[in-house]
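The freezer alarm interrupted the setup, so I double-checked each line after restarting. Inputs confirmed:
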Amino acid sequence: AQSVTQLGSHVSVSEGALVLLRCNYSSSVPPYLFWYVQYPNQGLQLLLKYTTGATLVKGINGFEAEFKKSETSFHLTKPSAHMSDAAEYFCAVSERDTGRRALTFGSGTRLQVQP
Amino acid sequence: SAVISQKPSRDICQRGTSLTIQCQVDSQVTMMFWYRQQPGQSLTLIATANQGSEATYESGFVIDKFPISRPNLTFSTLTVSNMSPEDSSIYLCSARQGFTEAFFGQGTRLTVV
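Predicted 3D structure, all chains:
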């Protein structure tokens, strides 16, 4: 069965600093990979996804992530943090070519941005 | 993309009562799902809502407690039955077409008193 591990339940960075949120997956076949953001009292918004092709994917709000099969990782980065990036971030996976279409979510990482 | 409208957005309910949450998608979708997000935690899948047949429940969730309907390709309901304070959570509807990304409603914040 697939699973997702997000290292670090809380990450704090200064405004303008690099953001790095870690995600590792466990799956017998490389899955589809997603990063979602959740702002307070809101639903989830897709930041970016990896399905096939280029392993470096760019998303909204300046975020990007790199799929590394050898490391079973899909870490999320942003070169320069902004105060508006403060939110909860979830990594999620979905199996390929199976009947199970539901996403499996990691435990989430709360990003704080200090002025 | 798909826009999902979920209602109510929040409710405070008495223990022992039931609440039905509605989820409307602005386009036909293959798959619809219901998740629970307990305070400060991640999303846990309750069930997959199947159009025209019984929902598929995850381990730990049963139909008597969380009956689900999906009468067509754009609409689903989740009922939280015989509520207790432990049911206080955010309930999220999700839709997915094929293997594309999943879209989410704004969630229903439920407080049981």
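Quick read of the result. Chain B has no helices and eleven strands.
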